[in-house]
Specification:
- 18% of the residues lie in helices and 45% in strands.
- By secondary structure, the chain is an alpha+beta fold.
- The protein has a single domain, classed as AF2212/PG0164-like (Elongation Factor Tu (Ef-tu), domain 3, Beta Barrel), CATH 2.40.30.
- Strands 1-2-5-4-3-6 form a six-stranded antiparallel beta barrel.
- A hairpin with a 4-residue loop joins strand 4 and strand 5.
- The longest helix is centred in the N-terminal third of the chain and has 11 residues.
Length: 97
């Protein structure tokens, strides 16, 4: 059985040239996930997940980022294009772990 979480967060881009686009999970949610599911993490704090924005749903993973103590959800170019998502836009997302 997968656990569902819904939250709102802005889309941001990693500062590296052609950097990936991410949404940071809220710290409180990240703490809850890490406390209960850390044992399922793979390399680099990776947890398999499914995500949904608007009408788009996809299989992905979240990564724990130790500097900010939060998980990062990458947002694929295909999803950004399909849902007409722009940098810094506030997004309502659902994830299943």
């Amino acid at each position: 059985m997968k656990i569902s979480h819904t939250f709102t967060a802005p889309l941001w881009q990693h500062p590296a040239q052609r950097g990936w686009y991410f949404v940071s999970l809220p710290v409180e949610l990240s703490n809850e996930i890490r406390e209960n599911l850390k044992w399922q993490e793979e390399g680099w704090g990776r947890l398999k997940a499914s995500a949904k924005i608007g009408n788009s749903e996809w299989n992905t993973a979240i990564w724990f980022e130790t500097k900010h103590h939060t998980y990062l959800l990458p947002i694929k170019a295909y999803i950004r294009s399909k849902e007409k998502i722009e940098l810094n836009q506030m997004l309502e997302l659902s994830i299943w772990l």
